[in-house]
């Protein structure tokens, strides 16, 4: 996008983005609480945001032909998209639909058998929670017909937590300002997730007239539609796109799943990274299978590890190595930034380096105080923030390098697991353990590190426009909060949250607080086993990095090792393999010219699956069906 000297405040874009952000949040929550269909949001994926940009691109084509003065400018579309990515990732798995039921689940799921009332409740800070046990019970089970929804019991915690969410977003964006130049200009990372929306925003006419786009679009759209028809009419033929096979004497499974969005995204990633992701996934699966057969397992509980505790800690160690090496490479850029701060130079960022530093330090202090108020010891609060900062840097760079595949589901290193493993729990107070348990629910706000993509997209705009992009993040978050809280509470009290997505509203809160109770009841020392596997992963990462640096033809990218143990990769690895294979065959037999022309086809694969999923969700809402899943997400 070229520079624009128009300094007029884009009111229309902010209003449109605010409305669409609210609608996006409502759609995502309704999807998980009522239709329980294909995910409209899964961690860092933003299908609804892309769907709305797709629609706005089509509307722009019509407006430019008949009412050109009403068409959205490139900058206006950027503003809207920047708001939508925040509104798309936070309502469900990343934050609100884990946070809300988890926040009150500690009270609702407490029983005489699990003794949470005795073990956990005394250590919770009551001002952070709704105060009515009866109101919490009705949220899960549904209120009586005609009964008013007790919104008033939620006002205080919603306001308190919303302030925390805003400050967290400020902290993340301020931090990422310092890394944009290094990742975008020095390392030339590919930013796979922005390629499709950027093409639509930059030139919708050229984008939509490409025949290869619509060829790619038609494949996932038709397959998804056939699957949707089968859901409505079981006699209609179906196309299976997912199969799981038990391996290693049924101790684990290998999933074969066809995801056209994943195949499409591989086009915009380096071929060695795509290869390394599926290669290391298979290698770690083999390793975990051997552990399962030999009875080797982690002896300290870890929530939501999907039965891959040891290899996950191995990837966590590699993740630490990844961040440390990234910071070492960053040292030259860091020195330049320090020099710019001293002389007052702004830099080509949405905030000047000086303002970003002030915002970063101020928000860090606020978050430190807030964590302490939740019951966490001040030193542990500081450590929590440091680890969280490491995670934000690593996952953000992962998103810039490989999109959903290397950063889409967050970090292989968890804050709580790392602290408990290295420090043990013998000398950690129950209030600190409870506060860290609570942070499992709200640290999903780090999902806003996807704003790294918006920073990349806005780098060619002028300083005034960059400030508007910065402001737009907070508008997007505001209307995401309003939409998410309102529709979640409304549907909970009207339909009963227990009838919503089982993992989000039952398994996740139960698993979180069961984990907290176990840590409090059975304190342990330093987890040498976990530390050992993290050390192995750490060393392996540096060995892989060294070999890659010394040997030009070396095919393995160490970033693939870092993220190959995440649940997202475990689920879509086969589609990663298909994407890698298709690129390899095109390059070998058709050449680089054909490969460049096929860009639109891969765009079509991504867009076709997204449009199919969103359209069938809207149909599900209209006809009132449930469980329709053309695709996983």
Give keywords.
633 residues; mainly alpha; two-stranded antiparallel sheet; 69% helix
Provide an overview of this structure.
- This protein is mainly alpha-helical.
- The protein contains 27 helices and 2 strands.
- It has a two-stranded antiparallel sheet with strand order 1-2.
- A hairpin with a 4-residue loop joins strand 1 (242-247) and strand 2 (252-257).
- Helix 14 (309-329) packs across helix 17.
User: Overall 3D geometry?
Assistant: globular
The helix count comes to: 27
Helix content: 55-70%
Mean pLDDT: 92
Q: Structural class, from helix and strand content?
A: mainly alpha
Strand order of the largest sheet: 1-2
Low-confidence stretches: 1-6
- Topology as H/E string? HHHHHHHHHHHEEHHHHHHHHHHHHHHHH
* Number of E-state strands: 2
C-alpha end-to-end distance: 30 Å
Strand content: under 5%
Main sheet record = 2 strands, antiparallel
CA radius of gyration: 24 Å
């Amino acid at each position: 996008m070229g520079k624009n000297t128009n300094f007029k405040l884009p009111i229309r874009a902010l209003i449109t983005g605010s409305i669409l952000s609210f609608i996006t949040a409502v759609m995502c929550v309704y999807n998980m609480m009522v239709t329980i269909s294909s995910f409209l949001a899964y961690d860092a994926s933003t299908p609804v945001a892309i769907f709305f940009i797709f629609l706005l691109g089509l509307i722009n084509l019509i407006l430019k032909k008949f009412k050109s003065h009403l068409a959205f400018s490139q900058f206006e579309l950027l503003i809207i998209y920047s708001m939508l990515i925040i509104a798309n990732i936070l309502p469900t798995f990343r934050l609100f639909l884990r946070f809300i039921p988890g926040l009150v689940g500690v009270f609702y799921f407490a029983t005489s058998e699990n003794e949470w009332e005795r073990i956990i409740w005394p250590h919770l800070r009551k001002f952070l929670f709704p105060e009515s046990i009866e109101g919490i019970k009705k949220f899960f089970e549904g209120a009586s017909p005609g009964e008013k929804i007790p919104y008033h019991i939620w006002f205080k915690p919603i306001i308190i937590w919303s302030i925390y969410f805003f400050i967290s977003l400020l902290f993340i964006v301020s931090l990422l300002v310092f890394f944009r130049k290094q990742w975008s200009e020095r390392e030339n990372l590919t930013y796979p997730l922005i390629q499709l929306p950027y093409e639509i925003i930059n030139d919708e006419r050229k984008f939509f007239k490409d025949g290869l786009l619509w060829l790619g679009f038609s494949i996932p759209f038709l397959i998804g539609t056939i699957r949707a028809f089968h859901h409505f009419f079981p006699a209609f033929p179906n196309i299976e796109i997912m199969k799981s096979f038990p391996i290693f004497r049924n101790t684990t499974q290998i999933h074969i799943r066809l995801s056209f969005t994943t195949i499409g995204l591989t086009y915009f990633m380096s071929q060695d990274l795509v290869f390394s992701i599926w290669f290391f996934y298979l290698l770690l699966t083999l390793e975990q299978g051997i552990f399962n057969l030999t009875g080797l397992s982690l002896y300290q509980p870890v929530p939501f590890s999907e039965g891959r505790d040891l290899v996950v800690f191995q990837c966590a160690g590699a993740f630490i190595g990844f961040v440390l090496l990234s910071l070492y490479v960053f040292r030259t850029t860091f020195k330049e930034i320090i020099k710019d701060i001293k002389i007052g130079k702004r830099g080509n960022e949405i905030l000047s380096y000086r303002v970003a530093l002030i915002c970063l330090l101020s928000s860090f202090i606020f978050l430190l105080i807030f964590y302490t108020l939740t019951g966490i010891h001040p030193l542990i609060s500081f450590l929590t923030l440091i680890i969280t900062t490491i995670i934000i840097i690593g996952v953000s760079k992962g998103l810039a390098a490989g999109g959903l595949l290397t950063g889409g589901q967050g970090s292989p290193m968890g804050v709580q697991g790392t602290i408990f493993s290295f420090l043990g729990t013998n000398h950690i107070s129950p209030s600190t353990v409870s506060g860290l348990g609570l942070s499992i629910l709200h640290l999903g706000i780090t999902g806003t590190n996807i704003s790294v993509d918006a920073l990349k997209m806005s780098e060619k705009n002028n300083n005034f426009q960059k400030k508007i992009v910065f402001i737009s993040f907070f508008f997007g978050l505001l209307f995401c909060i309003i939409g998410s809280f309102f529709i979640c509470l409304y549907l909970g009290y009207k339909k009963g949250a227990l009838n919503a997505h089982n993992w989000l509203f039952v398994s996740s809160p139960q698993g979180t607080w069961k984990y907290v109770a176990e840590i409090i009841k059975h304190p342990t020392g330093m987890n040498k086993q976990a530390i050992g596997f993290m050390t192995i992963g750490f060393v392996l990462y540096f060995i892989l990095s060294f070999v890659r640096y010394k040997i030009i033809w070396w095919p393995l990218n160490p970033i693939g090792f870092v993220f190959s143990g995440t649940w997202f990769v475990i689920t879509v690895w086969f589609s990663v393999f298909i994407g890698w294979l298709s690129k390899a065959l095109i390059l070998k037999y058709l050449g680089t010219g054909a490969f460049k022309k096929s860009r639109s086809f891969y765009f079509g694969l991504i867009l076709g699956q997204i449009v199919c999923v969103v359209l069938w969700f809207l149909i599900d809402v209209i006809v009132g069906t449930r469980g329709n899943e053309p695709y996983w997400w």
